[in-house]
Every structure is written in C-alpha cells, then in structure tokens.
Design brief:
globular; 9 strands; alpha/beta; binds pyridoxal-5'-phosphate; 234 residues; nine-stranded parallel β-sheet
Length: 234
C-alpha cells in the first residue's frame, strides 16, 4: 500500500471498474474514469495526474478557469455541471467535452461561440430519465429525438452521446432502471443515423453507483468522492 490516499483510492476505483466490466463481459478499456475534482485544490489534482489520470471533471466555470492554467496542458477537462449561457465563452475551445447540455438555447449559444472561435465543440446531452423527480436535464419524454435533430443541425457542434445524473439515494434496481433507460435511448438515437450525432459516450455513474452504471453500458464514469475523499458541501 502506498501512503498516498489518492493513489490508494485510484487503485481501488480502477480495480472496481475492471471487476465490474469483466463481470458483465465488457472490456475495461472501454470505460474512461473521469476524476471529479470540484472543490479540491490543484495540489491534489496534480497528484492524481502524476498517478496517470488525464480526464478531470469540474462543475463550475469559475473554478475551472482558475485551475486550468495551474495544471498540465494535456489534461482533458470535462465540464459536468450546469452551464449558464453567459459563461459559455469561458469554456468553448478550452474543455474537451461539455457533458451538461440541457436545452436548445444552451446548445445554440455553444454553437454560436464555437463558430466565432472557429472550433468544433463536443457535447453530451444531459437527459433526465427520472422525469419529474430530478430537476436537471432534458426529460426523456419531451420529444427528445426532434430536439437532438435540432441540436445536431447547429454548426460547429458534435453530439458525442448522453449524460445523466440520477436522483440521489435511490434503490439499486431503480437506479439501474434509469441507467438502462439512458442506454436504450442512446441505441434508439444511434439507429436514426443523424448527422453529427455519434452516440459513443454514455456518461453515467458516480462514486455511489458506478458499478451499476458500468453494468448498464456506461463508457465514462464521473468519480469524485471515491478518489479525492468527501467534499465540504457548498
Ligand atoms: C460532483 C459530481 C460527480 C461526482 O460525485 P461523487 O459522488 O463525489 O463521485 C459526478 N457528476 C456530477 C455531475 C457531479 O456534479
């Protein structure tokens, strides 16, 4: 055992990812671990980087802007939190993937800024398969296919897949149902062969539930507490 808790935690999480993948016949290499570093200092992020992690997730633009210049340039930053339209200019061209696109208006702004900056922005649509229980995300019943078509037709955007944050403290079978619903939706969308829609990424699973998400087809798990320890609530 190393005396660095980050390394120990990363070993545990990576082992759980491997075990969960193999248990359901998946290749562990098809699952990317995103270390969610929100509220955590640059020094801890650097330690996770030194241990081999290259994908980091943040949920606040201001925090992302402060941390990014203090850390290695080859980090793939994932914007996973709610994004306000007036902050889009601060992330476009800087982050690897925006997970939390939850409205046509937001997608339009990302498109507009991407065109202006002459970049292509990769996004996920945040879907809420739990319907009314969960506040964030596009409700999967709200004519989501036509919304996806509309977003995909915007210039300088590529839809790489779907993301979800299920309600907290749910029973395992209920959670599994949400993850399965997201996977089913991604297959349905994929079958429509919409231009600029790839459906390669299913961003689902956090510290409390990533083994379940992997069983249901997650390709990107977003783990914070399991790597960096508990956060001060804010
Ligand atoms: C904070 C956060 C996570 C990580 O949560 P943990 O339970 O600490 O693993 C994952 N996804 C999103 C969108 C988050 O905001």
């Amino acid at each position: 055992m190393s005396n660095d808790f980050i390394i120990n935690n990363l070993n545990k999480v990576n082992q759980t990812i491997r075990d969960s993948a193999i248990a359901c016949g998946r290749d562990p290499k098809d699952i990317t671990l995103i270390a969610v570093s929100k509220t955590k200092p640059v020094s801890l992020i650097q330690r996770a980087y030194d241990a081999g992690i290259r994908d980091f997730g943040e949920n606040r633009v201001q925090e992302l802007k402060e941390k990014m210049p203090a850390l290695p340039g080859d980090i793939r930053w994932h914007m996973i939190g709610h994004l306000q339209r007036n902050k889009v200019k601060d992330v476009v061209g800087k982050v690897f993937l925006i997970h939390s696109v939850d409205s046509l208006e937001l997608a339009r702004e990302i498109s507009r800024i991407s065109v202006k900056k002459e970049v292509i922005t990769h996004i996920l649509l945040e879907v809420n398969p739990a319907g009314e229980i969960n506040k964030t995300g596009i409700k999967s019943t709200d004519g989501i296919i036509s919304l996806i078509k509309e977003v995909a037709s915007l210039p300088a955007l590529i839809i790489k897949g779907l993301m979800t944050v299920p309600p907290i403290e749910e029973r395992e079978d209920v959670l599994q149902g949400y993850f399965k619903a997201l996977k089913d939706l991604s297959l349905e969308v994929k079958a429509k062969n919409i231009e600029n829609v790839h459906m390669e990424v299913l961003s689902m699973g956090m510290t409390g539930d990533y083994p379940i998400a992997i069983r249901e087809g997650s390709t990107h798990v977003r783990v914070g507490t399991g790597i960096f320890g508990e956060r001060e609530v804010y």
